[in-house]
Amino acid sequence: MVIPRPQGGRPSTVRPVERRRCGRPSTLRTVALPPTYSAASGRAAGLTRGRLRGPSYVRLSHDLVVRLDDAIDVRERLRLLATVLPSDAAWSHLSAAHLLGAHVDPPRRPHVALTPRRVLPQRADLVVHGRRLAAADVVEHDGLRVTSGAQTFLDLAAVLPPAELVAVGDALLAARHLTAESLQERLLRAERVRGVIRARTCAPLLTDKAMSRPESLLRYWLVASDLPDPVPQVPVRDRWGREVAHGDLGYETWRLLLEYEGRQHAETGRFGSDIERYSLMAADGYLVLRFAQRQLNPGTVVDRTGRALSSRGWRPTAR
């Protein structure tokens, strides 16, 4: 069994249990171990199975143990897991999206892409995907091999609904891990790839102006409806033309703004600034629709926005 390379940090000193031979105590020996090692090498150094299962150690995979001298975040965990993977491995799908800054939680079992083999290695602690990736489809980010923004978007098109896919694409654009050009180039090479139709349909809807996942969802639901397409980050100007605020989404023609209120808006300092901002919007003739998590569903968003637009003079176009 291959022992992973040390990843830095202080060596662990292990004192095996003293054993007696022929009535005489044996000499205690001190064994230095790297911060990460295989379970077998840890036991060979004197760490019992019970100690390896204790709170001072965590088993990242069936053959990889790490000592918890310091807290391990998602990136550090993936960096340690990479030491037992083939050199062509790249973190992919939701794992890649999280690493690249999309508003998604890291999956419980990390996703990794490997070049197809006759027998593709499988691990109970990982989700392994066979992918023939070009050089442009893999990037190094924060010391990790990760599928590029365009490749990640294409991979997720096969498993995410359109609204969530747009939210991921918006975040990758905003984080500068995706461009319209790189996405177009990747989709041109994606004939007969699972999810490519959805990816090509959603690609034109992406924007780097969305500030959060809920904003992206609101915009997608409205674009997919029969209502006019909203504009992200609408500037609000006073009578002298000065920008005094901006709305998450809106319609300047009908002076209607849509705002998503996350938990951060309940903070004392933020609450006061929100009051000021909404007062300025109302003073300049804007109607503001505010949505929170409870109203974050397509039926409520489309219905209330449609009614608000009608109250401001919008009429649906006859078909």
| Computed structural class | alpha+beta
What spatial form do the alpha-carbon principal axes imply? elongated
Over the alpha carbons, how many angstroms does the gyration radius reach?
27 Å
**Count the helices. How many?**
11
Question: Taking strands numbered 1, 2, ... along the chain, how are they ordered across the largest sheet?
Answer: 13-14-15-16
Strand content: 15-25%
Runs in which pLDDT lies below 50 for 5 or more consecutive residues are 1-34
How many domains, as an integer?
A: 3
- Helix and strand sequence: EEEEEHHEEHEHEEEEHHHHHEEEHEH
- Kindly state the mean pLDDT as a whole number? 81
How many angstroms does the end-to-end distance come to? 69 Å
Biggest sheet descriptor: 4 strands, mixed
Considering DSSP H and I runs of 4 or more, what fraction of the residues is helical? 25-40%
Number of strands: 16
Overview of the structural elements:
With 319 residues, this protein is α+β, with helices and mostly antiparallel strands. The chain has three domains: 1-17 and 29-69, no CATH class; 85-205, no CATH class; 213-311, Endonuclease, Chain A (3-Layer(aba) Sandwich). 33% of the residues lie in helices and 20% in strands. The protein contains eleven helices and 16 strands. The protein has helices at 39-44, 49-52, 74-81, 93-99, 149-157, 162-174, 180-188, 196-202, 213-223, 268-283, 298-311, and strands at residues 12-14, 20-21, 24-25, 31-33, 36-37, 57-61, 64-67, 90-91, 111-114, 127-130, 138-141, 144-147, 231-237, 243-251, 256-260, 287-291. The strands form six sheets. It has a four-stranded mixed beta sheet. Strand 11 (138-141) and strand 12 form a beta hairpin. Helix 4 (93-99) crosses helix 5 (149-157) and helix 5 (149-157) packs across helix 7 (180-188). The model is unreliable at 1-34 (pLDDT under 50).
